[in-house]
Amino acid sequence: MLSFITKEFDVITADIDERAAEIRMEAEGVPSVKVSEHLAYLKAKAVFDTLTEEEKSACVVIGADTSVILDGVIYGKPEDREDAVRMLSSLSGNVHVVATGVSLLSGCSKRNFTEETHVEFYGLDDYQKQVISDYCDSGSPFDKAGAYGIQDMGVLLVKKIDGDYSNVVGLPVSRLARELANMLKYPLE
Q1: pLDDT tens digits for 127-138?
Q2: CB 168 within 8 A of CB 117
Q3: What is the DSSP string of 81-105?
Q4: Half-sphere exposure of 63 (CA within 13 A, CB side)
Q5: What residues in the chain have per-residue pLDDT under 50?
Q6: pLDDT for the residue 188
Q7: Which of 29, 61, 119, 175 to pair with 3, CA 20 to 30 A apart?
Q8: Structural domain tally of the chain?
Q9: What gap in Å lies between CA 144 and CA 184, rounded to an integer?
Q10: Which range of residues forms the domain containing residue 143?
Q11: What is the three-class DSSP state of 69?
């Protein structure tokens, strides 16, 4: 998705314990819609700290994290099929928030933001139950927050969205492009 903004980037995985950070933030009372922003910053900082001073001044490190939130509860990646069915059934008939936190770090600037999109699932009727079962049988839900991807068969669960589609996929591309442009134009903000 980042290739819509630039063709020049490297993907570097950050070595952080996301679950431990989430537990700490919950204990500190961080609002659930802001947890992803904090995780994005931790990821970006972990990578940024590995760079040389020359690299820090020549690039922007982007960290991102996406959460699915229903009634203030964060739905992470499901542990197994049963957990995926439970999550998707809970989301059915409800509007949930997909919050993607993004952190931008460079040698002279830092920006953090959260993009929120509201997603409504169809109610839990017989058809929805069958879609959930088939989707879980596909194996697709197991590496996704909230147990679904709107970019794959998970789209069959969705009645409507209010907000940025790419945010639900996992990166708010339009907002990120604008934030990067502003950061590079006005680096000290």
Answers
A1: 999 999 999 999
A2: yes
A3: HHHHHHHHHHHTTSEEEEEEEEEEE
A4: 27
A5: 189
A6: 52
A7: 119
A8: 1
A9: 32
A10: 2-185
A11: strand
Please give the pLDDT value at position 19: 83
Here the CATH number for the domain that contains residue 95 is 3.90.950.10
DSSP reduced 3-state for 185: helix
Active-site entry in 10, 15, 17, 65: 65
Residue pair 129/93 in contact (Cβ under 8 Å)? The answer is: no
Query: What predicted TM-score, i.e. pTM, was given to this entire model?
Result: 0.90
Q: Are strands 158-162 and 110-121 parallel, antiparallel or unpaired?
A: antiparallel
Torsion angle of alpha carbons 160, 162, 164, 165, nearest 10°? 0
Residues 113, 175 contacting (CB under 8 angstroms): yes
Q: Which amino acid is at 119?
A: V
- Is 65 designated active site? yes
Q: Distance between CA atoms of 11 and 7, rounded to whole angstroms?
A: 12
Q: Where are the beta strands (DSSP E) in the chain?
A: 61-70, 73-75, 95-105, 110-121, 158-162
